[in-house]
Amino acid sequence: LTQNTLFGMGNPLLDICAVVDKDFLDKYGLKPNDQILAEEKHKEMFEEIVKKFKVEYHAGGATQNSVKVAQWMIQEPHKVATFFGCIGKDMFGKILKEKAEEAHVDAHYYEQSEEPTGTCAACITGDNRSLVANLAAANCYKKEKHLDLEENWKLVEKAHVYYIAGFFLTVSLESILKVAKHASENNKIFCLNLSAPFICEFFKEALMKVMPYVDILFGNETEAAAFAQERGFETEDIEEIAKKAQSLPKENKKRQRIVVFTQGKEGTVMTKGVETFPVLEIDQSEIVDTTGAGDAFVGGFLSQLVQDKTFEQCIHAGHYSANVIIRHAGCTFPEKPDFH
Q1: pLDDT tens digits, one per residue of 59-112
Q2: Which candidate among 38, 74, 108, 166 keeps its CA 20 to 30 Å from the CA of 3?
Q3: Which of 237, 295, 308, 338 is catalytic?
Q4: What confidence tier does 56 reach under pLDDT thresholds 50, 70, 90?
Q5: Is residue 103 part of a domain?
């Protein structure tokens, strides 16, 4: 493995995690297990959560979490994973840079001063988590000011595997398409995550523009259902949805699309002949926080994918990573993995 083999691009957010009560969720109209973008009515929420509850800060954002976990699973060499995204020139941006360095990820942020660094409130109730993202700076990523720069594009060209979470479709479709086309034309692997039901519903045009370049599509059961509904697939069966998503038109004919849908403790569906892989057993009492479990699954998967392991091994690594993450607060993990 060499440096910069894995490339991720997305919304770098500082996660503000806290265990909250039902009243807090109700006050801001939040569902126990959901992810949304902050609206005007959520503005005070970020201050209130810090004042009212015990908070922890973690470097977050879906794609950044996944490449961080992939790097942790790989361990050496450092900087196998590259990450692009936009931050503000502020305290939270500084924390994100430090956290990326600690995780040995080669983060190249586009820094600007119009907007502050993005944050994400992770409101935890029981083993559910409701995420509210205030994109701020993350929304300001500019293709021509960052991705197109020669030294940055060289890092894109060095990679063999690309991963972008669907959340970035709300920010810079043209950046995603540039990377996706590069991957497709050079027979490299481009991976996309559906990320949230609202992406499938409100950003379906952008999603369908990228879909022909997608070699590996990730999602969970609620995202798969939203995707099926928007595409008019007349089925609620997750294996059927996966098969239909697999057969959507594809640019690079040398690679068959693989669809991977997680369903929490129900096992993971993969269209390599469509089978379901059971997840690792965990006692309810050992679950600390499910924030980042899906990102961790993808990170584990990618850590093996960049090493040309079988898809089955990729899934086992994904299950292992997710199992570790849900035992910790936020998307955090012990110093070294114990994966064999």
Answers
A1: 889 999 999 999 999 999 999 999 999 999 998 899 899 989 999 999 999 999
A2: 166
A3: 295
A4: confident
A5: yes
- Domain enclosing residue 225, as ranges: 6-12+60-117+136-326
DSSP 8-state class, residue 89: S
Residue 36 domain-assigned (yes or no): no
- Within a domain: residue 338? no
Which run of H or of E encompasses 239? helix 238-246
> How many domains are contained in the chain?
1
Cβ contacts of residue 68 below 8 Å, gap of 6+? 59, 81, 100, 103, 105, 299, 331
CA distance 173 to 220: 22
Comparing CA positions, the residue from 172, 157, 230, 238 lying closest to residue 199 is 230
Q: What is the pLDDT of residues 114-137, one digit of tens each?
A: 999 999 999 999 878 899 999 999
pLDDT tens profile 274-305: 666 777 778 777 776 666 789 999 999 999 99
The CATH number of the domain holding residue 306 is 3.40.1190.20
Q: Which of 84, 89, 91, 90 is nearest to 109 (CA)?
A: 84
Q: By the 8 A CB rule, do 136 and 171 touch?
A: no
Q: What is the pTM of this model?
A: 0.91
Query: 277 forms bridges with which residues in the sheet?
Result: 268
